[in-house]
Specification:
This protein has 505 residues and is α+β, with helices and mostly antiparallel strands. The protein has 26 helices and 14 strands. It starts with a helix and ends in an 8-residue tail after the last helix.
């Protein structure tokens, strides 16, 4: 295709979402007044041509992008975020969009040559939006337009990954996000440079990993990462899981079981299919608008409870290799793998710069992922057992229930015992129902407090007070006591059993 044909490539301005268009008009007017040349590059151009919504807008400016982004944030009433000081990349967060600003020198074509993929190496002069043009001309020196129509992911130059290794992850993530294939030469380059991903800042890896976890074909994306060497470069602890056999009731080794658990989470969250048994197994699994809202709830920037549940699924058996033993009878055991795995998972997430809130949530999921099956070992759990479960799992209580079901599906695969499965689901439904009861089992109202124990019973301040109050809460949850008088009598009995001095009347 000749230069003239490329230059004629354009799309109707009506294809741009109205809110995005208005934002770009405001931005254009502001930058024109500042005498700053600017182009919309990458994502918005690509997604507009694909008739696909996007919340990310990339802007290339002829100037210091960090300074420009800071001024734009003030002008638009947004929030400025420093993304990459070395490469001069800043972000402006508005109510509806995130605008990433980068600097360029020379021509826009030279800037596009430094970008990662051909479908991201297209640009539109920002001023076109403020001019009210019907057709928006696209600058496309590397045939990104053609690759979009052919549904192919291709690097702009062979040095693209060497320049910025996070592009390795972005290439795979975009392929699975868009349903495109990665061309063979690009795949070879990903494999060649996969180890360089370790030089990328943890927060950038976190962002791409979360976006990959968001795609419906999450397991396929993770397996492709493993194929090209990226998965174990990011999380080397996963390499130890490969080939680690499990008891005969398991269908896969530890590594494949972990990936299958991610897929099972997708299935249980109604975001994907499960290929190993009749889809009717989903019928009795709890689901509601409240649960959907729970798993869509944002935990930190870019993460939700659903995405962190998938991450916990990937990491839930991370400590099985080092805890595996075989006893004298030949029985295979993984004693302590949940508790040790929680520590390892937290370490991995700290390395990838997840927030403290995200880490604590996943840590709790991994640590307690066996608890729901333990609850159902002798019929439906007691009120006291349910109270203790939610006390120990904290904010992760509901998430752990779903993780345990996903773990079950990913253990049995096509050999799922439907009676065992129904029993597990019944327990989960029962525990969830108790959780939804007002106060009662999960958070019984306080009948007495520490001050009561000091003033009424004459106790001295100390850890014993907290232990007795917790014992009262458990007794309330189990239905043993209901009033303040019963609570005080209960404490007197327990205090005397401990050998403490006689409480005052």
């Amino acid at each position: 295709m000749n230069v003239a044909e490329k230059a004629s490539r354009s799309f109707s301005s009506r294809l741009v979402e109205p809110t995005a268009s208005l934002l770009l008009v405001r931005l254009s007017h502001f930058l024109i007044r500042q005498n700053i040349r600017a182009y919309v590059v990458g994502g918005l151009v690509r997604d507009t041509l694909l008739n696909r919504a996007t919340a990310d807008i990339d802007i290339a400016v002829a100037g210091d992008a960090l300074e420009v982004a800071s001024r734009v944030a003030d002008a638009l009433g947004g929030r400025y975020v420093l993304l990459d000081e070395l490469n001069r990349v800043g972000r402006v967060v508005t109510a509806d969009y995130e605008l990433d600003f980068s600097s360029f020198t020379g021509s826009i074509e030279q800037d596009l040559e430094r970008r990662d993929l051909t479908l991201n190496a297209m640009a539109v002069e920002l001023g076109q939006f403020s001019q009210g043009l019907g057709d928006i001309r696209v600058i496309d020196p590397f045939n990104g337009w053609d690759d979009l129509h052919q549904r192919v992911i291709r690097v702009v130059t062979p040095t693209a990954f060497k320049t910025d290794a996070v592009r390795l992850l972005r290439t795979v993530r975009l392929a699975y996000e868009l349903g495109f294939s990665i061309d063979s030469q690009t795949e070879a380059l990903v494999q060649r440079y996969c180890s360089s991903i370790t030089s990328v800042a943890g927060e950038r890896i976190r962002e791409e990993l979360l976006r990959l976890l968001a795609v419906p074909q999450t397991e396929g994306g993770l397996r492709y990462l493993d194929k090209v060497g990226l998965l174990t470069s990011i999380i080397p602890e996963l390499a130890q899981e490969k080939g680690v056999e499990q008891p005969k009731e398991h269908s896969w080794d530890v590594f494949n079981h972990s990936l299958k658990t991610v897929s099972a989470v997708n299935f249980l969250l109604r975001r994907g299919d499960w290929d190993y048994t009749d889809q009717s197994v989903l019928a009795e699994v709890p689901w509601s608008s409240a649960l959907s809202e729970h798993f869509n709830l944002e935990v930190s920037s870019g993460s939700s409870r659903g995405l962190l549940l998938k991450l916990a699924a990937l990491l839930h058996d991370i400590a099985k290799p080092q805890t595996k033993t075989i006893d004298a009878s030949g029985r295979m055991r993984f004693l302590g793998h949940a508790l040790e795995g929680a520590v390892v998972a937290a370490s991995i997430m700290k390395r990838l710069r997840f927030s403290t809130k995200e880490i604590k949530l996943v840590e709790a999921m991994v640590e307690h992922h066996l608890r729901p099956t333990q609850l159902s070992q002798s019929g439906l759990p007691s009120r006291r057992a349910i109270y203790r479960y939610f006390r120990d799992t904290g904010e992760a209580g509901i998430d752990v229930l779903l993780l345990s079901l996903a773990d079950h599906l990913a253990a049995r695969g096509s050999h799922l015992d439907l009676d065992e499965w129904r029993g597990h689901v019944q327990t989960v439904n029962y525990v969830l129902a108790k959780h939804l009861e007002p106060e009662g089992v999960i958070a019984p109202p306080m009948l007495v407090n520490g001050n009561d124990l000091i003033t009424v019973l004459g106790m001295k301040p100390g850890p014993e007070i907290g232990e007795l109050l917790e014992a009262v809460r458990e007794a309330q949850a189990s239905g043993e006591i209901e009033t303040r008088e019963e609570a005080l009598a209960y404490i007197r009995r327990h205090w005397l059993k401990r050998g403490s001095r006689e409480p005052k009347e």
